[in-house]
Structures are given as structure tokens and as C-alpha cells.
């Protein structure tokens, strides 16, 4: 069953980890429905919000890979279910 999830990511040293972050996001581009990034250049931090539609396993795989990147913090909110999904 597919779920909607919002993945919040803080890149705490954006110059160091941005390339690896973008590579992981590109691997999961098929599930990404939206992405918004806000740079805080004076602090060297970027905040990114990614909305996805996928199975729990795929969401967990994606967030796990992001969370394994140094200088990145990840938090995820996942919908309970899709109301319009038919059995």
C-alpha cells in the first residue's frame, strides 16, 4: 500500500554533503512528488522538504540512505493510509 510522506532534511554543512544528498534523491526520483529547499547561506545550512508517494519499505529505504550521510538530520511524517485506495 502506498503512503504519502513528508521528509524533512537539514543539511548542517551543505557544501560538504549536498552532492551526496542530491545523488540519493536522484536514485528515488520516481517516488518524489515535490521538493522545496531553503538555503541559509550565512549559516552554511540548507533545509529541504521532500514529498513522496511510495510503500513504507521504499520510504524507509530512502530516509535510511539520507540519514546515513554525514552532516544530515532526517525526520519523516507518513500518512496512516490512502483513503481513495481500492482493495
Automatic annotation (TrEMBL):
InterPro entries: Acetolactate_synth/TF_NikR_C, ACT-like_dom_sf, FeFe-hyd_TM1266
Name of the featured protein: Putative iron-only hydrogenase system regulator
Originating species: Peptostreptococcus anaerobius 653-L
Organism taxonomic ancestry: Bacteria, Bacillati, Bacillota, Clostridia, Peptostreptococcales
Amino acid at each position: 500500500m502506498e503512503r504519502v510522506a513528508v521528509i524533512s532534511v537539514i543539511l548542517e554543512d551543505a557544501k560538504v554533503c549536498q552532492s551526496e544528498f542530491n545523488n540519493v534523491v536522484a536514485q528515488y526520483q520516481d517516488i518524489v512528488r515535490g521538493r522545496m529547499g531553503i538555503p541559509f547561506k550565512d549559516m552554511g545550512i540548507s533545509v529541504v522538504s521532500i514529498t513522496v508517494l511510495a510503500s513504507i519499505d521504499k520510504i524507509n529505504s530512502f530516509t535510511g540512505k539520507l540519514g546515513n550521510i554525514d552532516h544530515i538530520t532526517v525526520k519523516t511524517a507518513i500518512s496512516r493510509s490512502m483513503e481513495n485506495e481500492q482493495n
